[in-house]
Amino acid sequence: MKLRTVESVLEIPAAQWNACANPSGFNPFVSHEFFKALEESGSATARTGWKAEHLVYANARGEIEGLAPCYVKPHSQGEYVFDHGWAEAFHRAGGRYYPKLQASVPFTPVAGPRLFSASVETRDLLAKGLVALCKEMNTSSAHITFLPEEDWMRADKARWLQRQDIQFHWQNHDYGSFDNFLASLSSAKRKNIRKERKAVRHAGISFDWVTGKELRENHWDAFFDFYMETGSRKWGSPYLTRKFFSLISKSMGQHILLILARCEGRIIAGALNFIGSEALYGRNWGACEYHEFLHFDTCYYQAIDFAIQHKLKRVEAGAQGQHKLARGYLPVKTYSLHHFAHPGLARAVGEYLEQERRAIDQDQALLAQHSPFRHETDD
């Protein structure tokens, strides 16, 4: 058995990558096609601060049995697990935080496999390999973000520090229709959602669900304009190139849902979603016109409606956003692991994370008290 690194997803056959990444079920973001589109489009490359050092675990016959998508990074952009404060503190203390190792899916705050293998033992070896790679490459740290709770819980506490955060996901309780979902909400929340959707309809807005072979370049032209406008306001510099959307459309079209809002025949807004075997994943959105409640309908209600019609178990609507709670999206935890080469930095971050985990537990409990769903005493 041996570990090695490769500097391009193209060095690994798609069938072998996908067999390790999705041994059961399907998460679109860990597929070979998704990483290939990120790389070939120039979105995640050494030039943009994502230098690939994918960790590969092969047996004596050279057959790949596990891998971990990994990057050497000179910054902390596009990760959604924020460590800028750690970097600044270490810099003030005379340390060098960058470069660092990042085992993740670039620009994608979606939980899923990060240590690709059906074998628990192989996943443990990959985690050890990332620690060894951190030492070999003389990086300050290694980070595994948005990994499954099972792998987070199994982490070697002597090597890895544990971090949590909260996202908001909608769960499908076998609803037969959107109205069935609304009936499960408290009266006030139900009335509010109906009011918001009614306002969008009265503005003359309708929606198209575009997927698979129906996706066209003109759809992506419109959506990319929305993405650039919204991304420029939020982040200053959007991460994904126009070419990325064309590439995923060709290689993953059957796993894409593009929700487009139209007003008087014009496309005025759009939301990009990916379809997994169990979940619909909301990723990016944008608009060229402002209409009250358009964002909520395009990103949240349309996604719920699609999930119900296609019997998906949940909708994951991306990072952050307590406003999602009132719209049926409940708080769930996300997980990350962090290894630091410098003992002092590891000790300081470890103490911080102990306090942060307690705060996350309290936040989740408090948010759960404000669930929008009916109680037995409700009407």
Describe the structure concisely:
With 379 residues, the protein is α+β, with helices and mostly antiparallel strands. The protein has two domains: 2-167 and 332-368, Gcn5-related N-acetyltransferase (GNAT) (Aminopeptidase, 3-Layer(aba) Sandwich); 173-312, 3-Layer(aba) Sandwich (Aminopeptidase), CATH 3.40.630.
Could you characterize what this model shows?
The protein is an alpha+beta fold and 379 residues long. It has two domains: 2-167 and 332-368, Gcn5-related N-acetyltransferase (GNAT) (Aminopeptidase, 3-Layer(aba) Sandwich), CATH 3.40.630; 173-312, Gcn5-related N-acetyltransferase (GNAT) (Aminopeptidase), CATH 3.40.630. The protein is 37% helix and 24% strand. The protein is built from eleven helices and 14 strands. The strands form two sheets. The chain has an eleven-stranded mixed beta sheet, sandwiched between helices. Strand 12 (279-287), helix 10 (294-309) and strand 13 (314-319) form a beta-alpha-beta unit. The longest helix has 26 residues, at 343-368. The termini are far apart. The model has no long low-confidence stretch (mean pLDDT 95).
